[in-house]
Specification:
Shape: globular
Strand order of the largest sheet: 2-10-9-4-5-6
Radius of gyration: 13 Å
Structural class: mainly beta
Order of helices and strands: EEEHEEEEEEE
Helix content: under 10%
Length: about 110
């Protein structure tokens, strides 16, 4: 079974920053469009950002200008730099492949206090 391992979450005040990391097996990572998703309590999981192998990115409107997704193909790792965090960014954040059926990892909790 493929294992995705997210890390980097925590508790931060509004306006603060966090950097999330996600390591994936190389055979999956290299052919995947990688994405970061989040799920807040009582809400559906949503795609926050994605990045192709070639570095083409997508962001949901609510995080544009504040979040930056990047990937290190040598380390099979995708990152999400989150700046100017808001309380509404509070959620469990997950990474996954957009084009392969991969089981969800445990996620990492991000809590932004006002």
């Amino acid at each position: 079974q493929v294992h995705l391992v997210e890390s980097g979450g925590g508790l931060v005040q509004a306006g603060g920053s966090l950097r999330l990391s996600c390591a994936a097996p190389g055979n999956i990572f290299m052919i995947s469009i990688m994405g970061w998703y989040r799920q807040a309590p009582g809400k559906q999981r949503e795609l926050v950002a994605s990045i192709t192998n070639g570095g083409v990115t997508y962001y949901v409107d609510s995080v544009k200008g504040r979040f930056t997704i990047s990937r290190d193909n040598a380390k099979n790792t995708v990152y999400l730099q989150m700046n100017l965090l808001k309380p509404e960014d509070t959620a469990v954040y997950y990474c996954n492949s957009l084009n392969l059926g991969v089981a969800w990892g445990q996620g990492t909790q991000v809590t932004v206090s006002s």
